[in-house]
Design a protein that fits this description.
The complex is a heterodimer of chains A (317) and B (282). Chain A has two domains: 13-73, no CATH class; 96-316, MetI-like fold (Orthogonal Bundle). Chain A is globular. Chain A has helices at 2-29, 34-39, 45-55, 61-73, 87-122, 127-140, 144-158, 175-209, 212-219, 224-261, 267-277, 280-308, 310-316. By secondary structure, chain A is mainly alpha-helical. Chain B has 282 residues and is mostly helical. Chain B has a single domain, classed as MetI-like (MetI-like fold), CATH 1.10.3720.10. Chain B has ten helices and no strands. Chain B is elongated. The chains are: A mainly alpha (317), B mainly alpha (282). The interface between A and B is large, with 43 and 41 residues. Chain A: The chain crosses the membrane at residues 9-30, 101-122, 129-153, 182-201, 236-262, 282-304.
């Protein structure tokens, strides 16, 4: 197991390096010199040259790449062109909105999807089992921002229970309002996410229900529920966990749309603003931190899979 | 299950029902999109009605805050959604199928590298990749949105193509073809493509739904096709501010988007049941 973790860690670092290279290339493909974005329209050639020297974009690409890698290794993401403040500080401020949003939605989606998905599989021949799989099929096609708008209409404007958007300026120092403004965004993401998760849980459970080991357990005298609890769930969990990793990263990165619906100051709106203002350090910073989180999630999902399934551990050796 | 009185097994009947329901939903939207080329109730920028009118005989879906007819916008939106969907899937298919087949044929090292590359890119949602491509272009346009989404879809197509191609390459008839001196190009054309197209087709239909949804998201974020293109996503963004006084403006574009995406998914499900003998008989 330790050997597997070490090997997986090497792959993680390698992927990070590849991702850093891809990002570097991608950002150099953006039109124009970032220096132009720094000085603005109507700058003299001298001003542009000064900006280039400051950013180092007049250096050869190889030198730029090395200094970029060096900055990354020191977690130095530079300063925003627009606000001149540290990108890393800005990101950590915004992560304090996006991370709780994503994680809370993820947990809620699990709480909804796992029992309902199992129920949909176990009771596939009953009307409610069928209804549940229809609901999950329907839920996948619901645009997340549309659901957000509808929830705002009902719960903020009609019933006046919750704020329609925004985040308190004082952040979590104002815990009541901070939590209030998170409820609808979390609900929006969780509903859409649980629909697709439910499908995976249902499929994995159906697979297990048809398996020989479950039949054997029943033949050995275990009750249907008992066999499912003792042997079924752990087996069904293995394929679901790998999907969970992808789902979690998708949600984290997909939060950009939901943050827009509810005007939340998170990573997504930072990226959108960066794109609109051509604020390259901000775009780059958001992408690097997102990539890191996505790769870390995949890493953890893989390890968790090995913990759940001893057969995978044997193969890995 | 009780004894079946009809001649078809239940799975088959359900497959047919989803197929037809999907076909109807998609058909209505395709029809609206095609008709919009020849006729719409009003011109797109015609401020013919009062502001935020409720649906009526004159304005079937009501009007927006500038008094423009929403039904007209919905029809044009259908056209845009279909164009973006088809365009993005076409681009994604060309890039994805080419790289997927290349990976399947390539040496172990290149294959591993491409497979890892697909996996890394797939970890990022289509929408995010599309946002970056839009950012890389000077300004948003319909063409940019299509290109962006096509590039975003290509790793998903590439990954599936690679797996499907590898399955076909393992067959005896490929070895037979090689032994009889068939070139790789001819093998791809005569043996690989015909064998992967049915499965790939079903998957591309699903990608179509993804592309339509992502286009709506891009437009909602203000990164999609600029006005006067009426995209359902932008209609939703504009209607969000007036949702309390004019809820229909925010409900209808979302409903249209929902109908198209679920219609395509059902259609793909139905097609898979027809094409895949294992599922048909199972």
């Amino acid at each position: 197991m330790l050997r597997y973790i070490l090997r997986r860690l090497v792959i993680l670092l390698l992927s990070l390096f590849i991702a850093a290279v891809v990002l570097f290339v991608l950002l150099r493909l953006l039109p124009g010199d970032p220096a132009n974005a720094l000085v603005g329209v109507g700058a003299t050639p001298e001003q542009i040259a000064a900006a280039q020297a400051q950013l180092g974009s007049d250096q050869p690409l190889g030198v730029q790449f090395l200094s970029y890698l060096g900055d990354l290794a020191r977690f130095d993401l530079g300063n925003s062109f627009v606000s001149r403040s540290s990108v890393l500080d800005e990101i950590s401020r915004r992560l304090s909105v996006t991370l709780p949003l994503t994680l809370a939605a993820f947990v809620l989606a699990l709480v909804i999807a796992i029992p309902l998905g199992i129920l949909a599989a176990v009771k596939a021949d009953r009307w409610y089992g069928l209804l549940l799989s229809v609901v999950s099929q329907v839920g996948i096609a619901v645009p997340v921002f549309w659901l957000g708008i509808l929830l705002v209409y009902e719960f903020s404007l009609n019933l006046r229970l919750l704020p329609s958007g925004g985040f308190p300026l004082r952040g979590y120092a104002d815990p009541g309002r901070a939590i209030e403004s998170m409820v609808l965004p979390v609900l929006t993401i969780a509903i859409v996410m649980s629909a697709s998760l439910m499908r995976y849980v249902r499929a994995a459970t159906l697979e297990v229900l048809g398996s020989d080991f479950l039949r054997t357990a029943r033949a050995l005298g275990e009750s249907h529920t008992g066999a499912l609890m003792r042997h079924g769930l752990r087996n069904a969990a293995v394929p679901v966990v790998s999907v969970l990793g992808i789902e979690l990263s998708t949600t984290f990165l997909g939060a950009v749309v939901v943050e827009q619906v509810f005007s939340l100051p998170g990573m997504g709106s930072m990226l959108l603003l960066g794109i609109q203002q051509r604020d390259y350090p901000n775009i780059q910073g958001v992408l690097i931190v997102s990539t890191l989180l996505v790769l870390l999630t995949g890493f953890l999902a893989d390890i968790l899979q090995r913990v759940l399934d001893p057969r995978l551990r044997k193969e890995a050796r | 299950m009780s004894a079946e009185s009809t001649e078809l097994p239940p799975r088959r009947r359900r497959g047919n029902a989803t197929f037809w329901l999907g076909l109807i939903l998609v058909g209505v939207i395709v029809l609206a999109g095609i008709v919009s080329f020849f006729w719409t109730p009003y011109a797109l920028s015609d401020m013919a009605g009062g502001r935020l009118e409720a649906p009526s005989a004159a304005h079937w879906a009501g009007t927006d805050r500038l008094g423009r007819d929403l039904f007209t916008q919905l029809m044009i939106g259908a056209r845009i959604a279909l164009i973006v969907g088809c365009g993005a899937v076409a681009i994604g298919a060309v890039i994805g199928v080419a790289t997927g087949i290349l990976a399947a044929f390539a040496t172990r090292f290149l294959d591993d590298a491409l497979a890892a590359f697909f996996d890394i890119l797939i970890a990022f949602p289509t929408l995010l990749i599309a946002m970056l491509v839009v950012a890389a272009r000077e300004e948003a346009s319909l063409g940019t949105a299509i290109l962006a989404l096509g590039i975003g879809l290509s790793p998903i197509v590439g990954r599936i193509t690679r797996i499907l191609t590898k399955q076909v390459l393992g067959q005896d008839y490929i070895t037979a073809a090689r032994v009889s001196g068939t070139s790789w190009g001819a093998i791809v054309y005569w043996h690989i493509l015909p064998n992967i197209v049915p499965f790939l087709g079903v998957n591309l239909a699903l990608q179509f739904g993804l592309a339509v949804m992502a286009e709506a998201s891009l437009s909602y974020l203000g990164l999609g096709a600029p006005p006067p293109n009426a995209s359902w996503g932008r209609m939703l963004q504009e209607a969000q501010g007036t949702v309390y006084t004019a809820p229909w403006g925010a409900v209808l574009p979302g409903l249209a988007l929902f109908a198209l995406v679920i219609g395509i998914n059902l259609l793909a499900d139905g097609l898979r049941d027809r094409f895949d003998p294992a599922r048909r008989d199972g």
